[in-house]
Design brief:
mainly alpha; about 70% helix; globular; membrane; transmembrane; transmembrane helix
Amino acid sequence: MLIIPNTIWSKNQPTDYDNSQENKIFLLCERVGQVCCTCSLLIFSNYDIVHFSTWGLWLLASFLVMILYEICWIRYFTNDYIVANFYRSIFGIPIPLAILPVMAFLLLGIYGKVVWLVVSAIIFGIGHIGIHIQHLKAIK
């Protein structure tokens, strides 16, 4: 759910998108966080539904956040490929295409009680959200 729209985006970036001024520290955090999140998801198996309990609401929340993330991508791909559409808020969430995947990883890490995923998501979030805040400020 996360990789496919990002792959499509790499071929359909906003026409007015410029990543030449991205903060290198944010970029490093983003890349390290991406790798660590992926490794945490592959190494640990604490994400399965064993039985229904209120703890499972963390997993449900993570799933719903990912659905909202996909809706944001659909909204972007069905409109003009411009930065303003890429950063449009949804339900009051600013820069949702940056915030929602970080939230999903955090919620999944909490559900699975995998501290490595939580820490990785925080590192990823610092970089990913930081970069996109920079881009948003540049267009305003």
